[in-house]
Design brief:
Rossmann fold; 200 residues; alpha/beta
Amino acid sequence: MTRVAFATLGCRLNQVDSQQLQAALEARGFSTVPFGAAADVVVVNTCTVTARAEVSDRQAIRRARRANPDARVVVTGCWAQTSAAEVARQPGVDLVVGNADKARLPTLLDDLLKISRGPTRVEVGDIATARVVDVDLPTRVPGRSRAFVKVQDGCQHRCAFCIVPRARGASRSLEPARVVDDPRAALAAAVVGAAGVFHR
């Protein structure tokens, strides 16, 4: 079984994205382990709101490589979206996946694991073309007592000091029906999970 670890930096949107990626990879047979434990793949979900955030991103990439020198290191998130070339220059990075392409990460990772290690692969599309929030809610993320539901992403304002529109695209929202349905699904999954723990 392929082991995957996650390092998530920045805001709650990144936490949601990491939970969704974790659920998607587990559905493909991956096993999630804590960051720093022995892993075959390490996903670093980055932030880029401040210069300090990028320092933390670089530190997380270095820690991932030190802890697992043979693992494939995947960098995604806002820093990957806005500064793909800079991220790709970081030693030990195998794959850079922007926010526009996060949903493709499981397939990209399947492909990456089938080939020998080579030059850093960069998959960063145009986030400005994203028009809807189209995400699947993780049914259950082990070790988490709460689930996040992403209702809105991006921002329509173009403040001179803010990088969010470049990192996350224009403001877009979840379909109204899913704003109701996704929390219900999360609650149902939590009840099923709690019942399973109770009956053990």
